[in-house]
Amino acid sequence: MLFHTLLLAGTASASCLHGLSKFKRQEGGEGGVPISQFGYTGLIGPLNWASLGPENEACKTGKQQSPINIDQSVSLATERPVVTIEQQPVEFENLGSTVEVIVNGTTSFAGNDFRLKQFHVHTPSEHRVGEEFFPMEAHFVHEGVTDPNQIAVISVLFQMSANETSTPFISGLRPHLAAISTPGTKTAIESGLDFASMINHVQTTELFQYTGSLTTPPCAEGLTFLVTKNPLPLDVDTFNDIKRVVKFNSRYTQNTLGEENLIGVAMVAGTEQQFTPPPVLSPGQGQEQEQEQAAGGEEQPTPSAGAGVREGEGGAAQITSGATVVISEIAGMPTSLLAVIA
Ligand SMILES: *[C@@H]1O[C@H](CO)[C@@H](O)[C@H](O)[C@H]1NC(C)=O
Ligand SMILES: *[C@@H]1O[C@H](CO)[C@@H](O)[C@H](O)[C@H]1NC(C)=O
Ligand SMILES: [Zn+2]
């Protein structure tokens, strides 16, 4: 419901959802491209997005916020998307908060048909996979054909390549970056971009799937994310050229899905109402009933209890005798341990 309310909130500043028909496009400046009113630093940065407009409420209260650290609790998509992007002239725009390509396409996924509206990039990546970050992430933003309120984002992660080749749809942007180095400008790429290898990648390799939010204001929830498990290659020169124009545009990692918004957590930090993180156990602790904190070992297991618990709401129970903790990962290796605190 929150999502539908937000959709009715009217004009949204240029953002991840830029170009979606439900969010009226702002009038552009002289270059015709609207410049984002939010940013990534200080008072216009992610900690204060909710202050930029009442439609951004979910940025500080939402409990299904993106991006996240993708851990064992996020499952792989059981179906593959079918993606079509015809060769076409595209428009390349600098929104200030990102650079974006307006491109048409279709994606069918899980019985639903989506229209591709645009893709844009984040440097560094917004999602992390098993805590690992990537130098760049591209978001392919879709809206439902029958219900435009339905939004799906295919997220493609990039890794630096050792052989100076980039995925073609990204290397095709490089010659045009100079034309849009200033926020509010755009340029036409008449020859279009080559999406073949990107389409092949998202149709044939594994994708994580979860329901999250826009990673930019208004942070609306109920959005389907499909995130590539394996990154595509990105060469150093292209990365540096993109980074020079895009600059830093990565929202901080949000709390575990379903847990309190981290802004709410921060507001009570260090007070009696604070949220206390679960203890980090060393291997063998718990089951072996070892109490000492083995400092600095490489193999720090991650308790999946994850997001922390509130003092006085059972938080203390997490670290009292008899409490159980499920450990889903040790040093990046999936595992399944049920630890009992002694
Ligand atoms: C993309 O689709 C829109 C709306 O259907 C249309 O107006 C536009 O001309 C299309 N662009 C290209 C390059 O095909
Ligand atoms: C270049 O390296 C990437 C991985 O970094 C690999 O996917 C790609 O196949 C390589 N291309 C060539 C031409 O060797
Ligand atoms: Zn995005």
TrEMBL record:
SMART domains: Carb_anhydrase
Signal peptide boundaries: 1-16
EC number(s) from the headed UniProt entry: 4.2.1.1
Cofactor: Zn(2+)
SUPFAM superfamilies with a match to the protein in the record: Carbonic anhydrase
PROSITE patterns: ALPHA_CA_1 (PS00162), ALPHA_CA_2 (PS51144)
Keywords linked to the UniProt accession: Lyase, Metal-binding, Signal, Zinc
InterPro entries for this protein: Alpha_CA_prokaryot-like (IPR041891), CA_dom (IPR001148), CA_dom_sf (IPR036398), Carbonic_anhydrase_a-class (IPR023561), Carbonic_anhydrase_a-class_CS (IPR018338)
CDD domains: alpha_CA_prokaryotic_like
Protein family (similarity comment): Belongs to the alpha-carbonic anhydrase family.
Domain of life, per lineage: Eukaryota
Segments for region (Disordered): 274-316
Record protein name field: Carbonic anhydrase
Alphabetized GO MF terms: carbonate dehydratase activity; zinc ion binding
Residues annotated as transmembrane: none
Biased composition (Low complexity): 284-308
Pfam family name, one: Carb_anhydrase
Catalytically driven reaction(s): hydrogencarbonate + H(+) = CO2 + H2O
Functional summary from the UniProt entry: Reversible hydration of carbon dioxide.
The species this protein was found in: Westerdykella ornata
Alpha-carbonic anhydrase domain: residues covered: 36-271
